[in-house]
Amino acid sequence: MPTIDVYAAEGTFADKQTLAQNLAQAVMRWEQVPEIPLFSDNTAAFIHDLPAEAIANAAGAGNYVRVQVLTPVTSSTATSNSESSELTEMVAAAAGDPSYTKRTWVLITESPEGGWGIAGHANTNADIAAAARAALDAD
Hints:
139 residues, alpha/beta, four-stranded mixed sheet, two-stranded antiparallel sheet, 4 helices, 6 strands, 35% helix
């Protein structure tokens, strides 16, 4: 159940809700998880608007976007260029500016085992897998 955080200057995205949903759905697809509430309700993206002056590279340019994907440890399959490229393309399309493909940073991070909390409970990968099996068996 990954979370995705997108950081960009205010006004970069006109439709943040659609971008957030598209990013969450893409990461679920990479993770190859079943489309059950356990995953669809707990995989989310957050679009963070920052003041333009809050972003700068070493040369002073601030027209960058950072996408941070956090997944439970060892679950991430989103490590190839194609996955990073897909998120980058989504960001550029949502910004309405193809040049964002050159200014979007995608970072993929794994949380430590047992460090993935849902509903006040820190879950291990085994906990998540057991919950998914139970949800699938209930259908």
